[in-house]
Amino acid sequence: MSARASLGIDPEELASCVACGLCLPHCPTFRVTGEEWASPRGRISAMRQVQDQGAAIDQAFLSSMDTCVQCRGCEPACPSGVPFGSMMEATQAELARRRRVDWRQWGFRVLGHPWLLNLFSRGLAVGQRLRLVPSRRLGLPKIPLRQHRLRVSGDDVWLFTGCVMDAWQRSTHAAVKRVVEAAGAGVALPGAAAGCCGALSLHAGLEGHSRALAVRTMRALEGSAPILVDSAGCGAVLKEYGKHLGTPAAVAFSKRVMDVHEWLAARADRLPSALEGGQDLTIAVHDPCHLRHVQRAHQPVTEVLTPFATVVALDDDGLCCGAGGAYAAMQPELAAAIRERKLEAIRRSGADIVASANPGCTIHLANAGVAVRHPLEIVDEMVDYDH
Ligand code: SF4
Ligand code: SF4
Known about the structure:
- By secondary structure, the protein is α/β, with parallel strands linked by helices.
- It has helices at residues 11-15, 28-33, 40-51, 59-66, 74-77, 84-98, 103-111, 114-129, 135-138, 164-168, 170-182, 199-203, 207-220, 232-239, 241-245, 248-256, 260-265, 289-294, 299-305, 327-330, 332-349, 359-366, 375-382, and strands at residues 157-160, 187-188, 227-229, 257-259, 282-286, 310-313, 353-356, 372-373.
- Helix 11 (170-182) packs across helix 23.
- It is globular.
- The model has no long low-confidence stretch (mean pLDDT 92).
- One iron/sulfur cluster (SF4) is lined by residues 26-29, 40, 43, 68-74, 84.
């Protein structure tokens, strides 16, 4: 791919970087490579060279862009407020338009069809049992053979169930639903009517597809009830539908979206107490990037866990774990190198178990042998539902 191009980035956004470099220590790919081209400043400079100076989109440019985890750890670190995420989304959209062959265009379309994803997932599950699928190499969790049915219990709140998480980790949704119900709310479920939120498509630059998924999701989660999300990556995108679609309906929809821990932290006094002896556990909280840097709502996870265990923070300033949606599959070596730093922080914490509110992070960390659960799975096991 070598052609001159505009990347469609807002010129003011592109000009807002003053190249101070304060974001560099917060960038996981810069931390593991030490290379300018793998830093936010280097990536912005490369975007400027293409968009403002007519430089060609060559292999070096593609490597610089495609190795970005899109964790957005550079955004809160930037004193100039550079909106790196939207600049990278515009760049990826232009690259997707130019790629003639991109397996993601087909792979991510499966996510928009829950019946197809379920069929594919059951096939994978059988293949895993027959040892025909190299799960470890592909970074796959153990996929369940059968799905438990989740039942609607009311209409106080929606629980967004999504696509891959619903097909592979529905037991997490079940635990989250029990905890939300214990806090006094009846839970409505969109089922197959919603499906994928469009996050993976958006990060891969498939704008039209992510937009279509957003419209369908909004239609499925109708009304005015809060929309609770137990996957940080999905929650971040649902909260940005207003920005992406730019319609009053999308803005109103995004205002209803809450990470489930945000909703629970405000109702912590309604939850039953912990089972006796539960507080002996020490939990390290790994903040998913899309909860910490994008939603900026990571603190409620600690607030929700604190009555049930000793909670410790990791001492790595919230650096990414390297999961990044499909990143671990697309850039396995960099993803593993980034994860190694997270593993060192986890070891230093001395915790018994790690809690992470994003399915991609839990899968990526579990593949390295970490004992990791969704925070509300831990609460579900520790809460005394009889009292
Ligand atoms: S993105 Fe922000 S922090 Fe990073 S170099 Fe540019 S102005 Fe500085
Ligand atoms: S989004 Fe993450 S990986 Fe990409 S430049 Fe920013 S900090 Fe680095």
